[in-house]
Amino acid sequence: MNKRFPDSFLWGGAVAANQVEGAYQTDGKGLSTSDLQPQGIFGQRVTRTEGDFGIKDTAIDFYHRFPEDVKLFAEMGFTVLRTSIAWTRIFPEGDEAEPCEAGLAYYDRLFDEMAKYNIQPMVTLSHYEMPWGLINKYGGWASRTTIDCFERYARAVFQRFQHKVKLWLTFNEINMSLHAPFTGVGLPEESDQQAVYQAIHHQLVASGRAVKACHEIVPEGKIGNMLLGALLYPLSCRPADVMETLQQNREWLFFGDVQVRGRYPAYMKRFFAERNISLQISDQDRLDLQNPIDYISFSYYMTGCVTTNEEENQKARGNILSMIPNPHLASSEWGWQIDPEGLRILLNLLYDRYQKPLFIVENGLGAKDTVEADGSINDDYRIQYINDHLVQVREAIEDGVEVLGYTSWGPIDLVSASKAEFSKRYGYIHVDRDDSGNGTLARTRKKSFFWYQQVISTHGESLS
């Protein structure tokens, strides 16, 4: 087997504006949904008052320190960096007629800095945040007004950065709205399925419009979707378990089906009918959906199991996405099951299903790191995790899957999305800050920094 990845393969890391930038009220930025979730996406939504504290308000201060960080990414050999644009830096309330120049200028500086080192930006338009103003005034994605506002925002950034950004993504982990409606579509957490799926429909329509706009404004660019790769296995070979697994995998794959094929699949029509969900879909919506994405991107952290055994299901309640653990797999400190082979399975499944290029835009290990007396951080567990997953990516490429690249999650320590923790670290670069917000923010290279540097320089030949 060829141990070397294709020369065109893009290597890098992925971050999100709301988890690294900080500067949450700087240069005219408006309040976002992320700003109202200072304890993370599974935390309580709060009302922000002057002088209160949220760990993401400063995060790792990437807003001011990005030249230092981009230089470190370049030292590792990155050829791509996935980041997001904070929608509220461009349209603070979400419904303004004109974009905020200070916000646009900030991203100009960031993309120019990346260009100095030949690092290609991959930009997510909406990564777990949207303007609070759109929720406050219109009800978020429950309203068709938000579709128009998103299209205006997308066109503004395509226009401004058309010569600097060629790789785009629409919505981060778009299927997460099923589990966190406020984060995904700006709806109350207790919203019923009718409301959530109608809001998701509006988001899918907006995604289609963004694809069309990107192709018009950035003709040589590529725009993809982004799925939370929640691959599930049957817990047993009982046909009922296999059928239930098929149904549960379809609940997230349907987003990709719509974004690739431009229409709702028949199985979702049955799903809606059986639950008395009736979506308002206009003729224009149907046209807007018929703008297929160019590539499929996804996150991959773990797999889970499915069974029709109610006793087993009860035990799994409250687990991440209520997944049943696989008895054949080990888990991380946070209970996320480690399944490198599952990544190969998922890559093959997605490629067989869609025949579109794939991009792994999130994968990594959240762990507590120990800083030794000499300042070193020996994160061999992280090296092992990423090594084993990349070996499976190489296997998938040998299987014939077209994989464009790999951006591991959090190449520099950042605030975790789920609970806004610093102690759950993903980075090759350590940031001196703790869960209480104490620390100097100094950057330090971990052992994994030099390991990943070698992986990139050898195009994967150094993987074991």
Could you name the key traits of this structure?
EC 3.2.1.86, alpha/beta, 12 strands, single chain, two-stranded parallel sheet, TIM Barrel
**What structural category characterises the helix and strand content?**
alpha/beta
CATH topology group: TIM Barrel
Mean pLDDT: 95
Instruction: Report the CATH architecture.
Output: Alpha-Beta Barrel
- Assign the CATH superfamily: Glycosidases
Q: What is the β-strand count? A: 12
Characterize the largest beta sheet: strand count, sense, and whether it forms a barrel. Answer: 8 strands, parallel, barrel
Q: What's the number of domains?
A: 1
Tally of helical runs: 15
Q: In which range does the helix fraction lie? A: 25-40%
How big is the Rg? 21 Å
Instruction: Assess the beta-strand content as a share of residues.
Output: 5-15%
Multimeric organization: single chain
> Can you tell me the CATH class?
Alpha Beta
Q: What would you call the shape?
A: globular
Span between termini: 13 Å
Strand order of the largest sheet: 1-2-3-4-5-7-9-10
Order of helices and strands: EHHEHHEHHEHHEEHHHEEHHEHEEEH
> What low-confidence regions span 5 or more consecutive residues with pLDDT below 50?
none
